Amino acid sequence: MNRYLYDGTPEGLLSAAALIIAEEKEPETITLAERENTLFEEGLFIATDVAAAEAFFQRLRREAPDAASIFYYFVLAEKEGLDTSLLHYLFLALRQGDRVNGHLTHSAVRDVVMVSRKASRELHRFKGMLRFEKLRDGAYLARMEPDCNILQPLAGHFSRRLRAEDWFIYDVRRRIAARWHQGKLQFGSIEQFVAPALSDEEKKVQALWLTFFRTIAIPDRKNPRLQKSNMPMKYWKYLTEKQGV
């Protein structure tokens, strides 16, 4: 059997990778895909084993820590159709260590590393541009629509930076939220979300910030193309200074 199936979860993928790499003589000839539960689907299904997945990931962290980080960001990217590439990448990482990340001529390595870097860049970008708005109850709310599922690491970052405040980060696209309240970080889904009213203080601050932003702008030095390159327009929706632009 050279085609295997798994349940589509990160734990399932790691379980499958652990079994395939341990038992197959040539893992790079193996195909891995998410099970679709169709009648004539071909492939041997590997059930998720959380303990095996954890053990495999800990081994990866010991033998190729950078590759473990690449895997983590790859999962955040939620990229479909690259399960086989990820399997081959993990196999090579255990053989070559972190040197594997330099072998971008290998199609599997290139695919995985490029996708991972996209998620890493987006997370870094949101650490600097996420906008919190003060609500009437004193809490703060930040909304975003990232391409990658970066809510968890982003919330972890702000739980260290904004420890004294109560805040929410809401991923509008995935309808999930992170809440920091009384020193605890919680995650959950939101079935229905109604934007709460901003505080009067927040409205004044936003008006002042927008005025400041427009005042310091030098018309002759405006470069829309460079602006869009540094901060794509898809992110402007929740930036105070870009409203009405």
Please provide a written account of the structure.
The chain has 245 residues and is α/β, with parallel strands linked by helices. It has two domains: 3-119, no CATH class; 130-242, no CATH class. The chain is 46% helix and 14% strand. The strands form two sheets. The chain has a five-stranded mixed β-sheet, with helices on one face. A three-stranded parallel β-sheet has the order 2-1-3. Helix 6 links the parallel strand 5 (140-144) and strand 6. The protein is elongated. The model has no long low-confidence stretch (mean pLDDT 88).
Keywords:
245 residues; five-stranded mixed sheet; alpha/beta; 14% strand; 2 domains; single chain
Span between termini: 57 Å
Globally, the shape reads elongated
Unreliable stretches covering 5 or more consecutive residues: none
* Spatial arrangement of strands, main beta sheet: 4-5-6-7-8
The whole-number mean of residue pLDDT values reads 88
User: Structural class, judged by helices and strands?
Assistant: alpha/beta
Beta strand count? 8
Tally the helices: what do you get? 8
Provide a concise account of the structure shown.
The chain has 245 residues and is of the alpha/beta class. It is built from eight helices and eight strands; from the N terminus they run E-H-E-E-H-H-H-H-E-E-H-E-E-E-H-H.
Q: What is the element layout, followed by pairings?
A:
Elements: E1 3-6, H1 10-23, E2 31-34, E3 44-45, H2 50-63, H3 65-77, H4 83-96, H5 107-129, E4 133-134, E5 140-144, H6 151-161, E6 167-171, E7 176-181, E8 184-189, H7 200-216, H8 224-230
Parallel strand pairs: 1-2, 1-3, 5-6
Antiparallel strand pairs: 4-5, 6-7, 7-8
Helix pairs in contact: 1-2, 2-3, 3-5, 4-5
